Amino acid sequence: MKTSMTHKQIGLAVACALTLGFVSSAANAQNFGPNDLREIWTDTPKAQVWKNGYGECWHSAFGPPPGYNECNPAPVAQYVAPAPAPAPYVAPAPAYVAPVVQPAPVVLPRKVDRN
Predict the structure, then answer these.
(1) How far apart are CA 39 and CA 60, in angstroms?
(2) Residue of 66, 73, 58 whose CA lies nearest to 42
(3) Residue 100: DSSP 8-state
(4) What pairs with residue 57 in β-bridges?
């Protein structure tokens, strides 16, 4: 039994391998997703949003800066609570001061001359 391949069979095998290689690479290059995800038709580059497969935004340093969109949200003012009103001033109660009791005057009796 003859096990070697002839030149005709080798040529046919090479042709099939090349054809299958070209067809498979063309099939891999196609993206079968929805039209809005695989086509990039835009009139304004500011409205264009680039994302990777994980949903992270990509930015380019080329061209004007992007406008506000889902990857570049507009700044939002932060709420600052008003300062609380100052408490009304209540004067402290006066300190208790004990009244000063002065000693009673001493009245000495006068000596009366009885002459």
Answers:
(1) 18
(2) 66
(3) P
(4) 51
